[in-house]
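BUG: 3D viewer hangs when loading the predicted structure for this chain

Environment: internal workstation, default settings.
Expected: structure renders.
Actual: progress bar stalls at 90%.

Input used:
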Amino acid sequence: MSDSNISAILANLGSRLAIPKVNESISRLITGKITAGGQEAGKQSIANTLKARSDSWRAAANNARQAIDALLVAEASLNEIASLAQRLEELGALYNNNTLLSTTDIAALNAETATISTNINSIVTGTTFNGISMLGATKINFTAGVTDDGGTISLTTGTVSSISSLTEASNADTSGAAMTAEVALNLGEIAGGIQSLRARENIAYAASAIMSAAADSIVETDYAAETAILTKNMMLNKISLSLVAQANVNENFKVNLLS
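Structure tokens produced before the viewer hung:
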């Protein structure tokens, strides 16, 4: 076997070895991931743990958002109750400060008072979130998970005393004033809960994003290094093919000389 044949065989072997490495580098650059194995497997394990924690933090953020929505439902109902309570105060003032009211006027004031008090109670009993009561005659307390390890925050939507027995305008101003003060306190508690939850939601989303990015960075291919490897193997393949072609030319030249 001539030296040219040996060179062609070696060059062809070099090309065959280079092509799989070229394909592997291209695959890594396309996917942006390092194939698991050896040290990479350890990196993948760490990345999986970070990804799981990222998902847990995102779930905590979702919990906080759901709790915020629940408090917003209670807040909306309390604002409507506050408006109705103010009207009760007006009705009581109209009744108690006017001696010129006719029997019909008094009946109308009493009817409106009774209707308002009934609807306040309906709002209280009908204010729910996902089937859970948000308002009641006693404090409504619940917790929401806000961390990836089960940490919670305690919340309350306050109390709205029952006034279902209020049927006369003569007591409407006193009951309305008491209701207004009670609602104001409840709204303060809810506002504090909402602000606290929004802060915890922001923290949870930030933690989720940071850990997700950390997980990705661990398994991302070093594009500069991988590109250099790809270039080297492509050059090796190109040189090998050139050597094979050159060896073939030499062999053909020898055959032509002998013919």
